[in-house]
Amino acid sequence: MCLGIPGQVVDFVDAEAYLAKVDVNGVRRIISVRLLAEDNLQVGDWVLVHVGFAMAKIDEREAALTLDQVQKMGENYQQEIAAFNDSEIA
Fold first, then answer.
1. Euclidean distance between CA atoms 13 and 68, whole angstroms
2. What's the structural domain count of the chain?
3. Beta bridge mates, 49
4. Are 29 and 17 in contact (CB under 8 A)?
5. Angular region, 10: left φ>0, alpha ψ -120 to 50, beta rest
6. Where in the sequence is the domain holding 46, given as residue range(s)?
7. Contact status, residue 35 vs residue 47, Cβ threshold 8 Å
8. GO terms for molecular function, please (predicted)?
9. What tens-digit pLDDT sequence spans the chain (90 residues)?
10. What's 74's domain CATH number?
11. HEC string of 63-88?
């Protein structure tokens, strides 16, 4: 199963390459935000992340609700967090 997990943008490490650092459940990784180039992302924004890519911009309330629901999925959530931990765009 593929899940999108909420992450908060904490920094833009390479704006020209559309790379941002996000915090997902206390783990920070550099991901691609290229798919959201038209969304005017800012530090503090929330995004749904899947395997190193921001898939959608969401608000803080939706991030909290999504995280709550995903955590209730148990093993699928743990697998998605593990995939996030293992992924990093160089």
1. 29
2. 1
3. 5, 54
4. no
5. alpha
6. 5-86
7. no
8. carbon dioxide binding; iron ion binding
9. 467 889 999 999 999 999 999 998 888 999 999 999 999 999 999 999 988 899 999 999 999 998 888 777 777 667 766 776 776 665
10. 2.30.30.140
11. HHHHHHHHHCCCHHHHHHHHHHHHCC
